[in-house]
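Appendix B. One record, verbatim.
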Amino acid sequence: MLVKRIPFAALLTMTGYATYKMPPDQYPYAFIACSVALVSASLGVLRGPQHSRGLVNQVLTSLMDFAPLPLMNIQIYLEAKPLYALAHSFSLIPLGIDILVKLFGDECDDKAAASLKLVNNVINMASLTAISIIDDNYMYFFVMLSYLMAQASLLYGHCENCVWTERIHLLFFTLFFFVGILLGTAGHALVSVSPLQHPYAFCACAVGFCHALASLAETIACEDRCTLCFKRLTCSCIEIMTLPMLNIEFYLKSEQSSPLALGHGLFVVPLAFDLLTKVSPSAEGEDDSTRTLKDLTILGNIVSLLFLAANENNAVYGMMVVAAFIAKYGAMFMDSLIAGTGECTGLLGYSLLFGLVPMALKTGYHILIS
């Protein structure tokens, strides 16, 4: 029983620190948000996990689900865009409805309240993401991501088809963390790269961002067929398409090697074969010829970028070679050592790759060998 109170103790510690750092006279809405979490954590430490149908537990769950993020949004928008701040106070309406449903509602009302909660959370997370882009503040984005992780873990934990074990718990949160990193780096690259000046790099970043969204949806949805199919398609695209598109962009930028740029466009052949094997209903899986063609394309583009890095004496290109190597072969190596870690390693490699794209496209060179 004591072990089950550890998460509440961690929440109590963090919210206590946050409440201390949020004076009510300066940050009233953030202080209220932290206070709500503090009350919930305190009760959890004192009483331990309660039955899901307990009245006090249900009310506190509603408050934790609906109150903190809108209150934080109000506080953030008051400092950045005061005009839109109080629009987030409309979250009080679904909060009141949810509490009434928990007190007096039936099963149909529960489903309606759950849908309302989903809409409310999505709107507030989108709002926080928007202000993080407008203010160029990545910390807001990670606040949104942590809230999304909390909601996703609740959804995953209540999924009837999922067996919640310690290993699944660890892999789920690890995967979610690395997906978040990829989403952040690809999103930052997407915002930083101009589609008019660097169309190929922008397309590569868009593929990475879509794959991150697909992976995020797949971790949230419990074995949903649609999300799994979409993730398989984006996985093919990010594996085969990303590095050749970046190579085209970098070779076009090069004064010495620009004639070789469009030769990397041959990636469309293995990409087409790979996508056909994954969308065809009669295909049983990836055959050896398609896999070999895909591996040769990836390896060839890694070698091509390594050649360009040496030819241009550019350290950023060299780091991107390492990132691409980790994403492909490092993932295979880690998965052979510890099953289930390959995808996380691949996501980390792609995150590093996309994080280096804006730096690689900037004017000037980072010397590889002096």
